[in-house]
Design a protein that fits this description.
about 425 residues; five-stranded antiparallel β-sheet; binds zinc ion; about 20% strand; alpha/beta; six-stranded mixed β-sheet
Length: about 425
């Protein structure tokens, strides 16, 4: 048959996603598969089994990234790489990450079914700890692979219970022997749910992000003075939680103040001692700032940091700030972005050029090789929650686009 006529098996893709959704299934219909947990291990074991069933050459590197290689006619040529992540947020959804891994698997199954040979080898990948919710920061293993983050620094990241990344990697049996280091790659594709409302709003089935917004993370620690709430008069208090409340609203107002084109969020807060009859004396919260414009994001941070200092001084609550993580905005390879749009058109799917507000492993991959992503709609624009959902026909459409961009790029000289 003409490879142009080739289509993936939507029923089989659905079955694979449903099988994976059983691992770490939550009562609310989502999944909890935190990086390097027992659930992550079970999902990896199943994934590796499926790779072996396809006769792929499986490699696990020292960060636990799993690669499955399908040979090409010219095995000396750099492979086409495609994949995403198997880990999830706490009480996360059934599509984030796993769709790109199962989508690529379905592409390879389809190629095997039809005995399609490609010029270049094709490599499927599962990146370790994309989410960063158990071990911060996110995208850590693709970051090490791309040379942007240090391996030993990543090994020493600890979760809330003090368990180290490296020890947990060994515990689940996925500290491989291959060096975690970029090998030559022809191009990288990542198929993912949109995690926002744009495709649904515009009535399009396929999104082609021109790139990923910059991502700046900060941690703010406020010190107040604890005391009994009854006898302590209102004047002269040093209430760390009230200081935090003012600061959090400053973060929320920041995008409007800076003239738009950015988002700013406080998503996590810890209050001590968190008792109804003690004035809070210690608060920690996080700040997340994202924009296509890195300078705007930095100026916004400088503005809000000055606000924080002013609030801290006025309330007599000293603050300490950590600039935890910064990833610059990442414009994808224009030729590959266009290839996604053209391929969607050839297959009869309406598509949309857009940006990605969420971070992805593609962001680090983009530093190593030409990179682009394929998005499909998130119902209600919801993600990182148990109700995260994508229509099965959209999952199938995205995988068909993935199939054909992989076929085209694996045929390039
Ligand atoms: Zn993801």
């Amino acid at each position: 048959m003409d490879v142009k006529e080739l289509r993936i098996n939507g029923g089989r893709l659905k079955a694979a996603l449903e099988e994976m959704a059983k691992i770490g299934a939550t009562p609310g219909g989502g999944v909890q598969r935190l990086a390097l947990s027992d659930e992550d291990r079970r999902a990896r074991d199943l994934f590796v089994q499926w790779l072996k069933d396809l006769d792929l050459e499986v490699t696990v590197d020292e960060m636990g990234n799993i690669f499955g290689r399908r040979p090409g006619r010219k095995s000396r040529l750099a492979p086409v790489l495609s994949g995403s992540h198997i880990d999830s947020q706490p009480k996360g959804g059934r599509f984030d990450g796993i769709l790109g891994v199962m989508g690529t698997l379905e592409v390879l199954r389809t190629l095997n079914d039809h005995r399609v040979e490609t010029e270049r080898p094709i490599v499927i990948v599962d990146w370790t700890n994309e989410e960063g919710s158990r071990f911060a920061p996110a995208m850590v293993a693709s970051g090490v692979w791309a040379g942007a983050l240090d391996r030993d620094w990543a090994y020493n990241r600890a979760d809330r219970n003090g368990r180290r990344f490296k020890d947990e990697l060994i515990r689940i049996g996925y500290k491989g022997s291959a060096p975690c280091k970029a090998f030559p790659v022809h191009c990288y594709w990542e198929y993912h749910i949109e995690q926002g409302p744009m495709l649904e709003r515009e009535g399009r089935q396929i999104g082609a992000p021109k790139g990923i917004l910059c991502l700046h993370w900060y941690d703010v620690y406020i010190e107040g003075e604890a005391n009994q709430v009854g006898p302590t008069p209102m004047e002269g208090r040093h209430d760390a939680l009230c200081a935090a409340a003012e600061m959090i609203l400053k973060v929320n107002e920041l995008p409007v103040r800076m003239g738009g084109n950015m988002v700013a969020t406080v998503g996590e807060i810890q209050n001590h001692p968190n008792s109804r009859n003690i004035i809070p004396d210690r608060v920690h919260f996080t700040v997340d700032i994202r924009s296509w414009d890195d300078d705007l994001a930095l100026r916004a941070w400088e503005t809000v940091r000055q606000d924080f200092e002013a609030v801290a001084t006025r309330r007599g609550c000293p603050i300490r700030i950590e600039e935890t993580w910064r990833v610059a905005h990442s414009p994808f390879d224009e030729k590959r972005v266009q290839m996604v749009l053209d391929t969607a058109g050839e297959l009869g799917y309406a598509s949309l050029r857009m940006v990605s507000g969420a971070g992805h492993d593609a962001s680090y991959m983009n530093r190593v090789c030409p990179t682009a992503m394929i998005f499909v709609p998130s119902i209600g624009g919801r993600s990182h929650v148990e109700v995260e959902n994508t229509a099965w026909e959209d999952c199938e459409a995205g995988a068909n686009v993935l199939l054909h961009v992989i076929l085209k790029s694996a045929g390039e000289r």
